[in-house]
Amino acid sequence: MQAVILESFGPPERLKVRDVAQPEPREGEILVQVRAAGVCHHDVLHRAGKLPGAKAGVVLGHETAGEVVKLGANVHTHRVGDRVVVYQRRFCGVCRSCLRGRQDMCRAVGLPAVDTEGGYSQFVSVPAPMGIPVPASLDFRAAALACCPIATSVRALRSVAEFQPGDTVLVTGASGGLGVHQLQLVRALGGRSIAVTSDAKKVDFLKSAGADEVVVMKDGAFGGEVWKLTEKRGVDIALENVGPTLPETLRCLTTGGTAVVLGNIGGDAVPVLPGLLIGRRLRVQGSGMAPVEEVRQAIALIAAGLVKPVISAVVGFPEAPKAHRMLEERSVEGRVILEGW
Ligand SMILES: [Zn+2]
Ligand SMILES: [Zn+2]
């Protein structure tokens, strides 16, 4: 079979199409023919060698959708022909975290494309519980985004921030892969969103993507605008998709508000005022990929038409270097999908 291998860390051209052995499903595994794979900023960081612990010589990709084409021994949960989204990392299923339904916190396992299988490939073989069913009404491109950008947002907004209808939600880095889906989610669940962007040219796009209000950052500041838009009350929830904007984001929260930190662009420390946290009784919580149950919820929201995956380009798998360049140059809104050999 063919796969796109990251031969060494460096520019996009280090991604090469190679013939490799097709995996055989072992006991308890399903062989999935990959039909669509999302290209994520995480992949771009991995390729560039900026991801601690990541290896070269592997297949990238953790946003994978496809069709089950073969079953290993003792698989009773899936059938050949099933359409699935592949959960984005292996989990053991028996540790304390897994038994609590927090497969995202399983410590027994590895990330696809870090030490197991990635989606930039014709086939992947994974443990059957990683194959999450996708209804026939959903195309593979849309399904590929369920796990990473959309389920991550479902988790941050509903499970972590405990969103209620009527809440006002601040979304930083709003035109990115997480932000554009969070705006839709807030609207679908009965909230009001305030999108923050650093690019004045993205205002119309963000309004069309579902933002109720858009604030353009000036010299890194947006708190004053948000304060005005909320009649000096502040927002109930802030989804911090960027990282360096966290101090300004905290200033936008109302008393008792919650900030969920999802972004870490640049990776630098930021100053946080303890007095602000105390005085306003703020909650700041980090969040990341969703457990399996929330991936199911994301698939249901997409299938119901409440969240529409924002896909700006679809290119063939051999054009993975081009897809990486597009993301790196930030010339796209939403996701780039790989489809077809
Ligand atoms: Zn991703
Ligand atoms: Zn586990």
Describe the model:
- The chain contains eleven helices and 16 strands.
- The model has no long low-confidence stretch (mean pLDDT 94).
- With 341 residues, the protein is of the alpha/beta class.
- The chain is globular.
- The strands form three sheets. Strands 3, 5, 6, 7, 8, 15 and 16 form a seven-stranded mixed sheet that branches. A six-stranded parallel sheet has the order 11-10-9-12-13-14, sandwiched between helices.
- The chain binds zinc ion (ZN) (2 copies).
- One zinc ion is lined by residues 40, 42, 62-63, 148.
Short note summarizing the structure:
With 341 residues, this protein is α/β, with parallel strands linked by helices. The chain has helices at 41-48, 96-99, 140-144, 146-160, 177-188, 203-208, 223-229, 246-251, 274-279, 292-303, 320-328; strands at 2-6, 15-19, 29-39, 58-59, 64-71, 83-86, 123-127, 131-133, 168-171, 192-197, 213-216, 235-240, 253-261, 283-286, 311-315, 335-338.
